[in-house]
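Exam prep: given the inputs below (a chain plus zinc ion), describe the expected output before reading on.
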Amino acid sequence: MISSIPLYWRLQKSRYNLIGSRCKTCGSLYFPPRQLCPRCRSKGQLEDYRFSGKGKIVSWTIIRAAPEGFEDQAPYAVAIIELEEGVKVPGQLVGRPDGIEIGKPVRAVFRRITEDGPAGLIHYGLKWEVVENQDRS
Ligand SMILES: [Zn+2]
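Solution:
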C-alpha cells in the first residue's frame, strides 16, 4: 500500500473503487477510508480495504426537487445501503424509483454523476442498482 499519494487521489480511488479502511488491530471496517481507528486510537493500524459492492437497502427516499446540477435526473432515489460487510453508505439508486423496497439487494455500478454544462466535464462515480432475482447462494 502506498501511503504518500495525495488525498485527492486517495478520495478518487476510494469513490471509484469502493475502497475504505480496515483496522488490522480490531478488524473494524470503514467507508469512506479513515486515518485512525476510533476504537483502537493510536494502536490501530489501518490498511486499504476494497468492499465487495454488494449490499441491501436499509432506508431510501425519492428526491423530486433536485439540487442544482441534478435537475435532469429527478425524480431519483437515494438510499442508505448496508454493505454485506456491515458498513452503511449513502448513495443514489439508478433507474426508475419504483420497485424499491427496504431489504432489496443492490450492487455498486459506475455511472455518470453530473455534467458541468453541455460540453463540460463529466463526473463519474458509484451509484447503486437494485438486483432483481438475485442468486442468494
Ligand atoms: Zn481498530
